[in-house]
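During the first year of the project, the team set up a workflow for recording each protein of interest as an amino acid sequence followed immediately by a discrete structure-token representation. This format lets reviewers and collaborators read both layers of information side by side without switching files. As required by the reporting guidelines, we include two representative entries from the current panel. The first entry is reproduced here exactly as it appears in our internal archive.
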Amino acid sequence: MVGGPAVGAASQAGPLSEQLADDQVRIVVHDRGRDLSGVVRPGESWAAAARRTCASVHAEPAPRDLSGAVKEFVVDHDERLAVRAMTRGDLPDVLRWRHTQHIRRWWAAEGEPTAEGLEQRYGPRIDGMSPTRMWIAEVNGRSVGFVQDYRIADYPDYALLGPDPDAIGVDYALAEEWSGRGLGPRVLWAWMTRTRHRFPDAATYFAAPDHRNAASLRMLAKAGFTAGLWFDEPQEDGTVDTVVGCSLDVARVLG
């Protein structure tokens, strides 16, 4: 972030209106080797500022790293990310992903993943018979992971633990072979932009990864989430995990 000079120095550094105020957020959009810079105007979301800054007619800017003072977006003309509703045809992929140590470690409380167990757990969600909805993340049409979301208020015991019972909760997992490529924040962004239309009145999105899951915490930060309080969350198997509550301000980030 660049701070503006004192009023007395304005004549030396250019018109005062051209200086960045201390509270203005700077945006950089990376687009085919170009670094396009801008600032967030009063009342403008980070997403809207990024769109205005790059004015791309080919692809929407998505986050590269929103955790720093400068909010970095990227316009990718080659990889298109999307989320779609999960179907039963996706369950073999989900089962394979759940068996990898990369994901298994963080989902161990749900027990050993089996085809029958996934059908029992995810079938009602796929059918719309549960407050939780399931989604598949895709890159250029290839399945790369899954996302689940829910109104936190629909789970009263969990709502007591979080800071905003009216928030939309989200959990996610990327396939091991697609991890470490910077796709995580963009997968979350694809989910967020879709969720913005599904829940237009939601002011907050909320995730609570295990405090030891540094990769997940970093992914959330890059997507615009802010880490908050740590709390103990009871698990299905009777254990208790210490998790970090991470919140995203929908109006500030998405608009």
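The second entry, processed by the same pipeline in the following quarter, appears below.
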Amino acid sequence: MVGKKRILVVCGTAIATAAVVAKAIEEVLDKRGISTTIRQCKSSEVLSLAQDADLIVTTTPVATDHGKPIIQTLAFITGIGKQAVIEELVRTLSS
């Protein structure tokens, strides 16, 4: 895969949850050979930061009218459905 993929990780306040999710995504994608740049933000910042992202991963509902793929999930926090979300991440970033 050529070039780093830019991922915007969103939670309500961009403090703890976004940090946990960002680290988990970075580790998983690194193991798959996908180079990433990950930025964390709070939900109120998505519209102003989305233009620089290839993908948005969020733990909270966000606006969807910015033309970027969005994965809304708590799988990296709860562990439930984590493998399916990982596959979705890889598919989305590979397309």
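For the second entry, the following points were noted during internal review. The CA atoms of residues 25 and 78 lie 14 Å apart. Residues 16-31 form the longest helix (16 residues). Both points are flagged for discussion at the upcoming steering committee meeting.
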